[in-house]
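Dear H.,

Thanks for agreeing to be a second pair of eyes. The structure we're designing against is below in token form, covering all 229 positions.
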């Protein structure tokens, strides 16, 4: 079995990865960041006392290593030549199309959020209230309300991190240049003072929902928040 699990829906992909890994009696968890051929070979050739087949569970190999590096090529060539290996790859992001096809016999399992979610997040701007309400209505058909709220909070945190004078937060630094460009324009449409005010409102909603002291449901709270942008 050769399985590659990836996508931007980390909760779902991680849950699937753990379930698949735990099917093995002897799973070996491996950090894919900087993984060498020798390390993989030793783990793959390792046999238990009863010669039971082991499953290698490798995290973030494709996203943390350059595909043109010697070690990367040696590892993928070795896997392609040894079709009896039991390996599960898990990536904390969506991997490129070339990397999805580099392992010839791999089953690719993709966990991605619906595109309308990112359309919604990109449209979080002042005066865009009616459009946002329509988008969030569509989102609620397929996405849990808690995830929608989490992604709203994350988007405002990223915008604040992009404007931060003390240097960008790590979460922003990991983004691609085209992403930070869009984020910067979005943040400037609010201004730092307004962003802080809105982020504080989100904090109050989150805290109130957890303590049961808010008069509205999470669903209604999100609608009220969007109308106030």
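And this is the sequence the design step returned. I haven't edited it by hand at all.
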């Amino acid at each position: 079995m050769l399985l590659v699990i990836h996508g931007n829906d980390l909760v779902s992909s991680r849950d699937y990865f753990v379930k698949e890994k735990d099917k093995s009696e002897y799973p070996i968890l491996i950090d894919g960041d900087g993984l060498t051929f020798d390390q993989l070979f030793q783990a793959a050739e390792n046999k238990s006392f009863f010669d039971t087949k082991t499953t290698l569970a490798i995290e973030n190999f494709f996203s943390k290593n350059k595909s043109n590096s010697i070690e990367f090529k040696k590892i993928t060539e070795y896997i392609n030549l040894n079709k009896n290996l039991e390996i599960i790859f898990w990536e904390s992001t969506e991997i490129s199309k070339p990397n999805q096809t580099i392992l010839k016999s791999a089953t690719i399992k993709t966990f991605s959020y619906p595109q309308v979610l990112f359309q919604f997040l990109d449209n979080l701007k002042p005066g865009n209230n009616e459009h946002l309400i329509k988008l969030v209505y569509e989102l609620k058909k397929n996405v849990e309300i808690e995830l929608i709220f989490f992604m709203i909070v994350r988007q405002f945190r990223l915008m604040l991190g992009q404007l931060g004078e003390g240097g960008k937060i790590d979460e922003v630094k990991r983004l691609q240049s085209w992403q930070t460009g869009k984020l910067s324009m979005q943040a400037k449409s609010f201004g730092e003072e307004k962003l802080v005010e809105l982020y504080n409102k989100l904090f109050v909603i989150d805290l109130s929902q957890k303590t049961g002291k808010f008069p509205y449901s999470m669903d209604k709270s999100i609608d009220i928040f969007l109308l106030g942008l």
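Two observations from my side: The first strand starts at residue 2 and ends at 6. The chain has two domains: 2-110, 115-227.

Warmly,
E.
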